[in-house]
């Protein structure tokens, strides 16, 4: 397992990030190497994103299938507000999205 040194932000900037992360959730499971890459990115960027383990929790698995259409992980659920929800698959896409949105913030 790799561990990342989380980036540091001012308390104010971290509070903004914490707030933004309430609209995100990662569907994953522990032994999935692609999920590990995304968890590493989440740790590095100090993002309090809720992790939803689809192996441990069958309801989360059903939720992923119903919402995203596949049970492949990792999948980042992004709540854009106004009822618009995006289900982002592909670890590389998720990591790019998180970096663009939170790197340097
Ligand atoms: N190219 C994908 C690969 C993801 C992948 O293969 N995930 C596996 C777990 S390690 C999976 O969910 N397989 C079950 C499925 O595809 O339904 C990525 O990088 O995210």
Summarize the helices and strands and which ones pair or pack.
Layout: H1 11-21, E1 24-28, H2 33-44, E2 50-53, H3 58-68, E3 75-81, E4 84-89, H4 91-102
Parallel strand pairs: 1-2
Antiparallel strand pairs: 1-3, 3-4
Helix pairs in contact: 2-4
The structure holds glutathione (GSH).
Task: Provide structural commentary.
About 45% of the residues lie in helices and about 20% in strands. The protein has about 100 residues and is α+β, with helices and mostly antiparallel strands. The chain is globular and about 40 Å long. β1 (about 25-30), α2 (about 35-45) and β2 form a beta-alpha-beta unit. It has one domain (about 10-100): 3-Layer(aba) Sandwich (Glutaredoxin), CATH 3.40.30.10. Bound molecules: glutathione.
Based on Cα principal axes, name the global outline. Answer: globular
- CATH architecture label: 3-Layer(aba) Sandwich
In total, the number of domains comes to 1
**CATH C-level label:** Alpha Beta
Order of helices and strands: HEHEHEEH
Distinct ligands: glutathione
Major sheet, described briefly? Answer: 4 strands, mixed
Organism: Salinicola corii
InterPro entries: GLR_AS, Glutathione_S-Trfase_N, Thioredoxin-like_sf
Pfam families: GST_N_3
Protein name: Glutaredoxin
Features of the shown structure:
alpha+beta, Glutaredoxin, four-stranded mixed sheet, 44% helix, binds glutathione, GLR_AS, Glutathione_S-Trfase_N
Quick take:
With 105 residues, the protein is of the alpha+beta class. It has 4 helices and 4 strands, in the order H-E-H-E-H-E-E-H.
